[in-house]
């Protein structure tokens, strides 16, 4: 296994004042502004380091978070939420450096637990190196992006996961979360949308979905749910408000991952409804 590389790359997108409670700031105290930064880690794990053609697993992590002072409790809370979204809540209290290292080792363990016993059985049974199945080769690529959202009141956080674990084809999916910039808490659909408005919001999303389907299929003939279904969209599910959405400056963008509303071959759908159309259904 190659030596893990942990590279800290500061990426300051734009300075902003941390949202701190008054009790955390002493009189006349100058608080260091938080900035967006990232930690990157790469490794390749071989099942047999003595054999150049040995199956292996390539892992790349790119974790974005806030670099802030120890007195900035709000940004620290944001980071805990980011770590929970990027991987899971169990590791959310670790420092960013230890967090990334722990995530890396978790993926290494997953790979070895998944395939090593089968690989060793093949070697024991005398399977030639050229006949070792390709599905022993894995790849994980998890990246994230962090940016300010609507009126600088929210953090827009996205995590994209590419995974190739020997199936029929690789898969990529996203997880999108809005974080309250004043307290570091993740927001849910119930926090954003007024109750009883799902149908109206879905009608707005449907309009955007029809436009996108026409664009992708280079046609202008799709104008209804039935037209979408004839093109392979929404065959197995009704349209719904996804958990993945971002409160951006121009509107709310909804993410439907592959398989959510359409077959894998059609990819994901990112559909933006302008605030002018949807604001009447929001709690904000």
From TrEMBL:
<dbReference type="Pfam" id="PF11738">
    <property type="entry name" value="DUF3298"/>
</dbReference>
<dbReference type="InterPro" id="IPR037126">
    <property type="entry name" value="PdaC/RsiV-like_sf"/>
</dbReference>
<dbReference type="InterPro" id="IPR021729">
    <property type="entry name" value="DUF3298"/>
</dbReference>
<feature type="signal peptide">
    <location>
        <begin position="1"/>
        <end position="20"/>
    </location>
</feature>
<protein>
    <submittedName>
        <fullName>DUF3298 domain-containing protein</fullName>
    </submittedName>
</protein>
<feature type="domain" description="DUF3298">
    <location>
        <begin position="190"/>
        <end position="275"/>
    </location>
</feature>
<keyword id="KW-0732">Signal</keyword>
């Amino acid at each position: 296994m190659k030596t893990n590389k942990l590279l800290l790359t500061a990426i300051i997108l734009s300075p902003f004042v941390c949202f701190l409670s008054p009790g955390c700031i002493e009189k006349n105290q100058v608080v260091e502004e938080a900035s967006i930064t990232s930690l990157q880690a790469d490794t390749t794990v071989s099942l047999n380091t003595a054999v150049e053609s040995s199956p292996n697993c390539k892992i790349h992590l790119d974790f974005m978070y806030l670099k802030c002072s120890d007195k900035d409790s709000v940004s620290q809370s944001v980071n805990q939420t980011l770590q929970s979204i990027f991987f899971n809540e169990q590791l959310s209290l670790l420092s960013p450096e230890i967090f990334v290292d722990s995530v890396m080792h978790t993926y290494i363990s997953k790979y070895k637990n998944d395939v090593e016993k089968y690989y060793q059985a093949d070697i024991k049974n005398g399977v030639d190196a050229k006949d070792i199945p390709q599905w022993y080769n894995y790849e994980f690529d998890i990246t994230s992006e962090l940016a300010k959202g609507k009126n600088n009141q929210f953090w827009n956080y996205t995590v994209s996961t590419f995974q190739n674990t020997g199936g029929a084809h690789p898969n990529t999916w996203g997880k999108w979360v809005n974080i309250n910039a004043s307290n570091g808490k993740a927001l849910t659909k119930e926090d954003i949308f007024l109750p009883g408005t799902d149908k109206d919001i879905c009608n707005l999303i449907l309009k955007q979905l029809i436009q996108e389907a026409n664009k992708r299929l280079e046609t202008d003939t799709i104008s209804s749910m039935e037209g979408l279904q004839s093109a392979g969209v929404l065959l197995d599910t009704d349209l719904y408000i996804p958990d993945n959405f971002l409160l951006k400056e121009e509107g709310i963008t909804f993410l439907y991952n592959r398989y959510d509303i359409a077959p894998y071959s059609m990819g994901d759908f990112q559909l933006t409804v302008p605030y002018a159309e949807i604001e009447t259904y929001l709690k904000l």
